[in-house]
Design a protein that fits this description.
Layout lengths: L6 E8 L4 H9 L6 E6 L6 H11 L14 E5 L4 E6 L6 H11 L3 E5 L13 E9 L5 E8 L1
Parallel strand pairs: 2-5, 2-6, 4-5
Antiparallel strand pairs: 1-7, 3-4, 6-7
Length: 146
């Protein structure tokens, strides 16, 4: 569905075994200077989704949550990938040290609501909202501007 602001919204309701459907849809948008902003409560599946996505993009090493390191970097043959967890960041100033490393890379940011940064000035943004559904399923609401 595309709204009047040229924002397209796609929804998926999946369990862990069906998560590859969401990954396959989003894989084509995983490019340089693109950021996936992941919103969701603790345990919603942000890191699980990121692990599945990065493995699908060709990351062969173990993908760990960057909760304590703030940012983990991975390389594939043609893409530098940043996985950022902003949960512990208290303000945007702490985050600015990572912005330079995000240029010419693909980035996934968990807890972006902790930062007050206008990402769209620098990057193509895709927002992904993850919430709990019945029977161990998750609702993924994906917003992207055309």
């Amino acid at each position: 569905m595309v709204d009047k602001n040229n924002k397209e919204t796609i929804k998926f309701i999946v369990n862990i075994q069906e998560l590859s459907k969401v990954v396959e849809y989003l894989k084509v948008f995983s490019k340089k200077n693109t950021i996936f902003l992941l919103y969701g409560s603790l345990g919603a599946g942000k890191t699980t989704f990121t692990k599945k996505l990065l493995n699908n993009l060709g990351v062969n090493e173990i993908v760990n949550s960057p909760t304590f390191t703030i940012m983990n970097q991975y390389k594939t043959n043609d893409l530098l990938i940043n996985h950022i967890d902003a949960y512990r960041l208290k303000n945007s100033n702490e985050y600015e040290m990572f912005l330079e490393q995000m240029i010419d890379a693909f980035s996934v940011v968990e807890w972006p609501e902790n930062l007050k940064i206008n990402y769209s000035s620098y990057f193509k943004i895709i927002k992904i909202f993850i919430s709990f559904e019945e029977n161990d399923k998750r609702l993924f609401v994906i917003e992207k501007e055309d």
